[in-house]
Amino acid sequence: MLFSLVVIDVSSMFLVVAVSLLELEKKIKNSTKDIIKNQKASLTSLEILNPPIVTSTNSKNTMTKNTIIKAIYSIIIMIL
């Protein structure tokens, strides 16, 4: 009985972490949209619509950084 309660508690904790990460991702996307809207007119619409092409090594680095950041946030949330 105690084991099933522990499993339910751990699974609910992972659910809370997942929901928190989704909310954080939404906030980051919204703030990024606001930053793009508030940029100065020095950027042309062509630069905004066609960002520079990212090479595969850069995308791997970005994916690794995103994974590390998500792991850190999940650890912080689990501690709280």
Low-confidence stretches: none
Shape: elongated
Q: Can you count the helices?
A: 3
Broad structural category: mainly alpha
The gyration radius over C-alpha positions equals 19 Å
Order of helices and strands: HHH
Return the domain count.
1
Strand fraction = under 5%
Instruction: Output mean pLDDT.
Output: 69
Q: Kindly state the percentage of residues in helix.
A: over 70%
Your description of this structure?
The chain is an all-alpha fold and 80 residues long. It has one domain (2-79). It is 81% helix and 0% strand. It is built from three helices and no strands. The chain has helices at 2-37, 45-49, 56-79. α1 (2-37) crosses α3 (56-79). The protein starts with a helix and ends with a helix. The mean pLDDT is 69.
